[in-house]
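quick one, 207 residues, struct below
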Amino acid sequence: MSKLNIYDLYRHVYPASLLESSAKMHKEGRTGYTVIGGEVREYLRGMTMSEYTPWAINTFKQFGEEPILGDYLTDYMNRADVRQAFNIPDSVQTWSQCTRKIDYHELDECSYWIYPILRHNTRIMKYSGDTDGAVPTYGTKQWIMNLKWDVLEEWRPWFTEGQVSGYVEKYDGLDLVTVKGVGHMAPQWARQPVTEMILAWTHNETF
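---
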């Protein structure tokens, strides 16, 4: 796991040492610099999995060096021209992907309790990228099966332009859709299939 993007197991990642060795040439390390309103400000470049999911910090820390993810995004979002395009006032802090200001805590029940309440009152669709290691499809299938709702439509593939884009199974109260070969950010990496799937589901059409 130490070399993987836990949110998308197929995505290419770069180890921290690579970023650091490259950054040493620019005298930056993980600290980035930008000029906002004539003032030089610092920001943290990228993120690690233990920073992004602090409740699982012990899981990731035991594997040693973690890859740095999203450093190009933090560089982009802190550019003066990008901030201006988003109409971000100079008084607003620099942008980073993670914050240590939120004190996370864990709940055993999470959002599990809401599904029986919503059942038959609103349509529910849960989609899952099947290479997501943080919120894996297998775990999603487990908690849905634990609801013990009847299966109305058996597990079957769904297609985009003749290619398998994932699988769908319909329960009495919830539809489970998987998206093939992508992780947590399925709409980012499977844009056409996910767009067509969501539109079809919204209009109650077969896909």
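Residues 119 and 173 are 5 Å apart (CA to CA).
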